[in-house]
Every structure is written in structure tokens, then in C-alpha cells.
Here is the input.
Amino acid sequence: MEKRFAMRKFCVVLALTLVVPFLYAAPPSQRPEWMNKVTDSLPLMGHRNWILIVDSAYPLQASPGVETIETGENELDVVRFVLGAVNRSIHVRPDVFMDAELPFVPDSDAPGASAYRREIGDMLREYGVQPLPHDKIISQIDETSKVFHVLVLKTTMTVPYTSVFLRLNCKYWSDDAEKRMRAKMSAARHE
Here is the structure.
């Protein structure tokens, strides 16, 4: 009887020794809200939606289709995360735009501009970045946001004209396939 009681006591102590650390352990690390927003929104987004990774002075746009989130993160880290998420998707690919002004921003006026150009250039090398004047990109975003959702991720970047604009495009239908189809449609109308 005494052995049985001692065995039960031992089992209870052992169980508590194994369970108590889990009760007091720190909760698993939570991902930042902006990462969750990208992960949750991406399956809903498609052709003609935009994701913008912008510097800290990018304006808060008033269009109802624009959603802005402050990340509190380094811009290059946010670009890397978003591109990774888009690349892992089955349905979209990014058309990448950047401000045409960036190559002309000198380090003397904006310390770190040259280093940023090198780093972002390396990161975006395979994407065929299309430079456009900043005002033209803003106008496109404004027009697009009247019909389509635009997700803006503000970063801690303090170098001007460094924003990365991703217009989502269909991953499983190329621009060339679209042109060929349109040409066939046009030819069929003229027969």
C-alpha cells in the first residue's frame, strides 16, 4: 500500500514537473500585424491589385480602396517578405515599379541613397523594374484605388523616392499570351 502511494506521489510530481514549465512558458512569438495582413490579403488579391512598400514620408491617401499600415520595419526587410509571399503564391506575380527620381538622389542630400540603390538593385535584379516619375505612379495608384484594393506598407525608410510599387499580375497567364489572344479576337472580328 505504501509503495502504491509513493508511486502515485512520484507520478504526480513527475507530471507537474513536465506540465508546469509549459504553463509558465512565454507565448509563441506573434508575427507583426503587417505580415499577417499581407499573408491574409494575398489570396484575395489578384490582377490589378497593388502592394506598395513605401518610405516614411509617403502620404496617407484618402481613396477608399487604399489601406495603409505602419510596419515600423526596415524597407528592405518588408520588400523581401512581400516578394517572398508573392513568389510563393499560385496566382500572382509582381510587376515592379520604382520612382524614376531615385537614381538622381545624391548621398549629400540623402545619406544612404547610394547604399539603398545597390541593395534594392540586387534584390530586384530579376524583376525588370520599370522606373516612372513619382507623380505618375501616385496618379496610377489613385485611379486604380477607385476600383481595386491597394495595400500600402509604410516603413522606417528616410531616403526619398525609395518606394517599391508592386502591381500584381496573373502568374498563370503571361502578357504575351494575352497579346496573342487579343490578336486572334481582333482577326476573328474582321473575318
